[in-house]
Amino acid sequence: MEILNGFSIKEIVTSFMVLFAVIDIIGSVPVIVSLQQKFGQIEAGKAAITAGAIMIVFLFVGNKILKLIGVDVNSFAIAGAFVIFVIALEMILGIEINKTTEAKAASIVPIAFPLVAGAGTLTTALSLRAEFHDINIICGIILNTIFVYLVLKSAKWLERKIGDATLMILQKVFGIILLAISIKLFTANFAQLVQNYINF
């Protein structure tokens, strides 16, 4: 099958790590526990599958929308790099530029969307298409979906075991990784964009 031709373990791992850092499900454990206390038992399977489906659908439909409005993938990837950069700054500096934790429903909203499959995650998934094969990004999304399910299932246990201090350290570490990824994404796609215009 043609879709399997670009299969790469390295790209799958990178896609997983990038999306894992952006989703920051471990850092969202206190929020999840709070929502669980407010609304009762969260349907982990329903929330995880919905989030994964949203990401995969946007991965393909998002590109068609871009073509419809006349924006190329490289330009969108650069915009995505700025979004990832801002998310990384939030994680490293401990500030909130744009993050909503208020909820009026459980499981699907706000767990699946926008907590897991939010604007930053969707932008990142589409931005990855500029460098990676679709099959590898899909694998990365599926792995994250499984991880999200496991975290949602054991949110209370994780909060007790990990603790606030460890959560904060993890957030800073993934923030730095995300910052480096955003810079790489920007430089690679900016160079490609310049090259396209020169050739044009």
Describe this structure in words.
It comes from Chryseobacterium flavum. The chain crosses the membrane at residues 12-35, 47-69, 75-95, 107-129, 135-152, 173-194. This protein has one domain (9-190). Helices cover 78% and strands 0% of the residues. It contains eight helices and no strands. It is globular and about 55 Å long. The relative contact order is 0.22. The mean pLDDT is 82.
**Over all CA atoms, what is the radius of gyration?**
17 Å
Number of helices: 8
Shape: globular
Mean pLDDT: 82
Tell me the distance between the termini.
Answer: 33 Å
Helix/sheet category: mainly alpha
* Uncertain segments: none
User: Would you list the SSEs in sequence order as H and E?
Assistant: HHHHHHHH
Q: Total number of β-strand segments? A: 0
Main sheet?
none
Helix content: over 70%
Number of domains: 1
Binned strand content: under 5%
Supply database-style keywords.
200 residues, mainly alpha
